[in-house]
Structure formats: C-alpha cells, structure tokens
Amino acid sequence: MRILGIDPGVAIVGFGLIESERGAVRMLQYGAVNTSAGMPLATRLVQIEQDLTQLIQQFKPDEIAIEELFFSKNITTGIAVAHGRGVILCTAEKLGVPIYEYTPMQVKQAVVGYGGAGMWSSLVAADEGGSEVVILEKAPVEGGGNSRIVLKLKKHLAPIKVAVIPLKKNNEQIMAKCHEIKQNLLKLGIGRVALENTGNIGKAYRRHDEIGTPLCLTVDFETIENQPESVTVRDRDTMEQTRVNIADLPNYLREYFL
Fold first, then answer.
1. pTM (2 decimals)?
2. Quick one: 120 exposed, middle or buried, by C-beta within 10 A (0-12, 13-18, 19+)?
3. Residue 124 and residue 38: Cα distance in Å, rounded?
4. How many angstroms separate the CA atoms of 84 and 114, rounded?
5. 210 vs 6, which has greater pLDDT?
6. Do residues 34 and 84 lie in contact, with contact meaning Cβ atoms separated by under 8 Å?
7. pLDDT in tens, 42-69
8. Under 8 Å between Cβ of 13 and 50
9. Whole-angstrom Cα distance, residue 173 to residue 176?
10. Residue 140: in which H helix or E strand, if any?
11. Would the pLDDT of 121 be above 60?
C-alpha cells in the first residue's frame, strides 16, 4: 500500500510518500510544493491543485493522510492554511483517492508515544535505512536573547537543496539573474531549487534555516555589475558566507552535495 502524507499550507505544502508491505515501511519520495508570496492567493491555490494532481497521478497513492486544521493564536495564518487544505481535499476527492485526517496530537502520539509532546521533541526524520536522526537544534543569536531555529537535515534529506534569494525583489536585473541561476541549477539534478523573493534577506535566511535548506545563494548588485559574475553562498549550519563565481557554481554544488 502506498500512502501519501500531506502537511497542508499555502506557501509550502509538504509531502512524503511511503510504501507499507507486510509490516515493513519504506520511504519512496518526499518534498514540498512551494508557491511564491508575491502571487495572488487564487493563483497560488491553482498552482497547489496542479502540482498535487501531477503528484498523485505520478505516484498513484492508495490513500492520503492529511493533518486536520489546527488554529493556534495566529488566526490569520490558520485561515490561509484552510484555503490550501480545502484545495488539497478537493483535489484528492476528484481523483478518487481515499482521505484520512489526523490531529497533531494523534501524529505526536504515533511518533513519540505522547500526544502532548512539544515540537522540539517530536521533530525527527528517517533516512533511507529507516534510522532516526536528530534534525532540530536551537542556537543563540549573537548580541541578543532570541533564538535561531535550524532544521538540521542531512543534505540528501532536505526538501529544498538550494534557495536563490534576490537582494532586491523589485530590481528587474537581479530578478532576471535569479531566474537564470535557478534554471541552470535545476539542470544539475541536485534536487529542488527554490526562488525566495520575500525581499528581506534576514527573513529568507531564517525561513530556510527552519525548513532545513542547506545552502542559500544571494544575488545582489555586485552580481550584475561586476565581472566575473558571482553570488554569496551561505551555509545553513555554519552561517559562513562565501563569494563564488557563477561559472564555478556547478562544480561547487556537485562537490557539496555529491
């Protein structure tokens, strides 16, 4: 039996596909459907429907498991998630795939044996061998009392391998270069590459730290004004930033991931 698990949302719809046979469970695929914050909500919902339809038709799951809607203090976020969840339910129903819904408490109970577990204790992931790896750590930020949350996935487990981030999202040259870099990186076959156009470098870094993206590439004015063209490569775990020529990116990324 193939089961497609879905974590509903609008900006990111996470998914994981497993196969269960005679008591043995193995992971087949995982990843995320991403939509850009700059697009209208209706357009993002259409993209979710199209991508999910393609996903279901490609992997042909026997059933779908989805988290029941949970409203926290942020009602606005909950409403947005409800839009995405509705599209997911409708798409699955149209394609004739049975849907099973679970509360966060039920999921935690199944994973760690305690429904009231906090997020810190229940965030784990399985690699291809089925072993459990710790993937979350809390590190202090210099000069303040806040915390930096890092989802320390192994490189091969990260849903998004590289995020391409423009310094200015309203600069046409920078955005054009971001799109060009993204398309070229996709050809390397290293995995999913995301274009993050929030327009705020700090927020973009924090977001991708939290979802486990190993590398972020920043395209800035130096990229488009100087020769040879280069970008800033930021490592998730060390936070070190290195200037790399765009022409050298393929070899740099192959060595990093492979």
1. 0.52
2. exposed
3. 31
4. 28
5. 6
6. no
7. 999 999 999 999 999 999 999 999 988 7
8. no
9. 5
10. strand 136-140
11. no
